[in-house]
Design a protein that fits this description.
The chain is globular, with a radius of gyration of 18 Å. The mean pLDDT is about 95. The two termini are about 25 Å apart. By secondary structure, it is of the alpha/beta class. It has a seven-stranded parallel sheet with strand order 3-2-1-4-5-6-7, with helices on both faces. The chain has helices at about 20-30, 45-55, 75-90, 120-145, 170-190, 205-215, 220-230, 235-250; strands at about 10-15, 35-40, 65-70, 100-105, 155-160, 195-200, 260.
């Protein structure tokens, strides 16, 4: 079964800007008529902007539902209702779709001022892991309670980072969060038969990259980020997501694998 071209239910977190917005737009061009996109983020106005862009990109062949939600406050009932509400609003059922895709894009950089031995704020540690790990796990479980037909194509795309496999000074939060997500995704792939890809998008021109340039305490790492930005050596969201679309379409990867933008010709 081809990854693209099916009637698809696609849920994208962090869809209001940057990589998440671009994923929603580019994926909508590749699915069949009657597909449904559910866009989740914290900012209503920006979500509506993404919705308009998706409808334009897909030539109004897909339906779009937006939901404003704070993933820092995970709640399994809310996540279950998020999916069910989108189906009921548009008068469809899970079984109407040949392919369901869950995209975990939402996430945060965390405190890049601290070394690991300086991490002592319990609320800060728990808050980071809640947003970046716990919410992802809970959303997985509730999504696949509804899209539970193993005879249908089911997929998860997780936006990861080189930081999941390579440590960086003062980036203990981000490295730990991404490494944990990667391993959760590998376990999911092994257990379920769901098609899973962890995509490391490379250095991308986003608000998070700008934040890294401003806040990274390690001087060497900070210098690298800022020099890459100044020299124009970072990618646009469109560049990395175009390659992601290609990788998904070709399915030339091991299920659950971590693939970096620079791994692909």
């Amino acid at each position: 079964m081809s990854f693209w071209g099916e009637k698809t239910f696609c849920l994208v977190t962090g869809a209001s800007r940057g990589i998440g917005r671009t994923i929603a737009i580019e994926f909508s061009k590749k699915v069949a008529d009657g597909s449904l996109f559910v866009l989740v983020a914290r900012t209503t106005q920006a979500l509506e902007s993404t919705k308009a862009a998706v409808l334009e990109a897909s030539e109004n062949k897909v339906k779009v539902v937006t939901t404003t939600m704070d993933l820092e406050k995970p709640d399994k009932e809310s996540y279950f209702n998020l999916v069910n509400s989108a189906l009921s609003q548009t008068g469809v059922q899970a079984g109407d779709f040949n392919h369901s895709i869950l995209v975990h894009n939402a996430g945060s950089l965390g405190n890049t001022q601290r070394k690991v031995v300086e991490m002592e704020d319990l609320q800060e540690i728990q808050g980071y892991l809640t947003l970046n790990v716990t919410s992802m796990i809970l959303l997985n479980s509730q999504f696949f309670k509804i899209f539970n037909d193993a005879s249908k194509q089911r997929s998860v795309v997780q936006i990861t980072s080189l930081s999941a496999i390579q440590p960086f000074k003062t980036w203990g939060f981000y490295c730990a969060g991404k490494a944990c997500r990667d391993m959760v995704m590998k376990s999911l792939a092994l257990e379920s038969g769901i098609q899973v890809l962890s995509w490391a998008p490379g250095p991308v021109d986003t608000d998070m990259y700008d934040l890294a340039c401003k806040t990274t305490a390690d001087p060497e790492l900070n210098k690298v980020f800022n020099e890459n930005k100044e020299k124009g050596q970072i990618l646009s969201p469109e560049q990395t997501i175009t390659k992601l679309v290609k990788v998904l379409g070709e399915k030339k990867y091991v299920n659950g694998e971590h693939i970096d933008y620079y791994d692909i010709e």
